[in-house]
Structures are given as C-alpha cells and as structure tokens.
Specification:
Blueprint (H helix, E strand, L loop, with lengths): L1 H10 L20 H5 L3 H10 L7 E2 L10 E5 L11 H9 L20 E5 L9 H11 L3 H38 L6 H35 L5 H13 L10 H18 L6 E2 L18 H26 L2
Antiparallel strand pairs: 1-4, 2-3
C-alpha cells in the first residue's frame, strides 16, 4: 500500500492556480513513516473529538478535489520548521500586508508538514459521515479518510472566518454611510451608530470565543493557521477589550482593508462543505444586491452558533 501511494503521489503533483504553490520537492517522501502511523485509532479519535462534522455535505472544490490529491497535515518538531518562501510569495503577490512570520505559531506559514494523499473516491454531494463509514467499519483507506476529515475541519473554519470578515466589512460600510448622511440630525446619527456598534460588538465577542475553539483544533492537528492568525491580528489591532466600534471612522476604514486581506487568504479554501445555513450566504462583497443589515446580523449570529456547535465538543471533552 505504501509503495502504491508513493507512486501515485509522484504522478499527481500539481500546481494549483491562484493558490499557494505545492512544493516541487515531495515533502511526503520524508514522511512515509508518519503516514503508516495514521491508523484507524487516529481516525476514531478524530471523529470522537469532532463528531458534528459528519453531518456536513461536501461539494466540488478547486483546492481540495480538482487536483486529484489532498494535503494531509502531519506532526513535526517545532525546532525543525523551515521558512516556506512560497507562502510569503503568495501573500506578496496578492498585496496582503499581514506578515505571518511575526506570529508565534510556526505552522501558520509553512507547508512543510503537509503530505499529498491521492483522492480515491468521489466526495461531491456526499455527507462526510457516509464517506468515512466504510473506513471505520473495514479499516480501509484510513489515510484518505483521515485527510478528508481534516480538510473538512479546515474548510469549515475558513468559511466561518470568511463570513465573519464579510459581516464586519458590511457593518463598517453601514457606519460610514450613516456618518456621511447629512440629512440626519446629530442625535439620530449618533444613536443609529451606537446601536449598530453594540449589535456588531456582540457578534464579534462571540466570534472571538469561536476563534479560540478553532485554534485548539488547528494546533492539535497541525493545520495551517494562516487564515485564523490573519483575523486574530485584526481583532487584536482594532477590536480589543470590547472597544470594537468606539473609534473614529478612519480606524474602521483601515480595519476594512485588513479584513479584505484576510478574505484573500480564505478565498482559497472556503466552501468545501455546505454549512447548514449556506443558502443565506449566496452573495459577497461585490454583489449588487445584498441582504438588509438586520438580516446579515442574524446570519452572522447564526454563523457563530454553527461554528460553536462544530468545534465546542473537543473543548468540553478535554476540559480546555
């Protein structure tokens, strides 16, 4: 089985367009032993810790399925991490100002722990639980199912981050619009901004809790935290100590630019799975018609609820 995987990996090397470049040197060659250590017990542990993901339905996805291979994060020693120039090149190419090298977690900006694993079954339109059931029942295709489960966790988290960024951007745009509306009396303008700021801050504070839970999962399974660290950087810089929107509009405009940078990162891996409220998010920042902000506020609160349901189980089980 190991030799078959190695041969397929060599044949399935790809460079994904508009993506972080997969290394031309096969990182998996040096991690063959790690692959053999991924057993059915690892898969069972993963499903026990994060059981809510089995209900999600997968869809076709350029990054995760079109290349014929998936990327499986594997453990590595912190002191052996090597700078990955392709990640920095990706950020610079897209003019993203966020510099992950300043973050304390090394796996935020390296792909050296990721291994190519061939995709050997169709996943489009199938629930994750149905796909992995034969793996658990018959102890077959363990590395494929283990990789798939981690990919679903990763994409779900990235989707939640992307939606949060979009929500805050819309909130900022609404505040700016109210600020510039000369037809409003000062009292009405100030009251409207205050109410919108309070509602937005509530969503932000719940998302901060969700972000903590997502970090636990990503750190535990060595998934690249690049998109999480990007939004964490924004939260720490602009939304610290519940003072999210009590600052001048100039600060919000700068925050908006940084949120758009994070969305350039999330674009690559979002929407591999259909979250339960996916029909509410069939629009983006460039859509001519967007939902009213009251609806967007409800969608975003629901977004946090969905994320907490997916990621909280591990926190409860392990008493974090």
């Amino acid at each position: 089985m190991k030799n078959i995987i190695n041969r397929q990996i060599i044949l399935l090397k790809v460079i994904i367009s508009n993506a972080i470049i997969i290394h031309p040197v096969d990182e998996c060659n040096s991690k063959t032993d790690d692959i053999t250590f991924i057993t059915i017990n690892n898969l069972k542990k993963l499903t026990r810790e994060y059981p809510a993901f089995i209900k999600l339905t997968l869809q076709e996805h350029k990054y995760y399925t079109e290349s014929g291979a998936s990327l499986c994060p594997l453990p590595y020693e912190k002191e052996n991490v090597i700078t990955d120039p392709t990640v920095i090149t990706f950020l610079e190419f897209h003019n993203i100002k966020f510099d992950p090298r300043k973050c304390e977690k090394p796996w935020t900006w390296t792909q050296h722990n990721e291994c190519l694993v061939p995709i050997i079954f169709s996943t489009t339109g199938e629930k994750l639980g149905k796909i992995i059931q034969p793996c658990l029942k018959d102890n077959i295709n363990i590395i494929q199912c283990y990789t798939l489960y981690l990919n679903v966790i990763e994409s779900s988290s990235v989707t939640l981050v992307d939606r949060f960024c979009l929500f805050v951007i819309i909130a900022i745009d609404n505040i700016e619009q109210i600020e510039n509306d000369e037809s409003l009396f000062d009292l009405i303008r100030d009251t409207s901004i205050s109410l919108l700021s309070i509602e937005t801050t509530v969503v932000i504070e719940w998302f901060k809790l969700l972000l903590e839970y997502m970090f636990i999962a990503f750190h535990q399974y060595f998934i690249s935290t690049l998109p999480l660290d990007c939004i964490k950087n924004v939260l720490e810089k602009y939304m610290h100590n519940n003072q999210s929107f009590n600052k001048p509009i100039e600060n919000k405009i700068e925050c908006r630019k940084h949120l758009l940078d994070c969305m350039k990162i999330t674009k690559l891996k979002k929407n591999y799975v259909l979250l339960t409220d996916h029909e509410n998010w069939n629009w983006d920042i460039n859509s001519e018609e967007k939902p009213e902000f009251d609806l967007i506020l409800k969608f975003s609160q629901k977004n946090n609820d969905i994320g907490l349901d997916l990621f909280k189980q591990n926190v409860i089980n392990n008493n974090y």
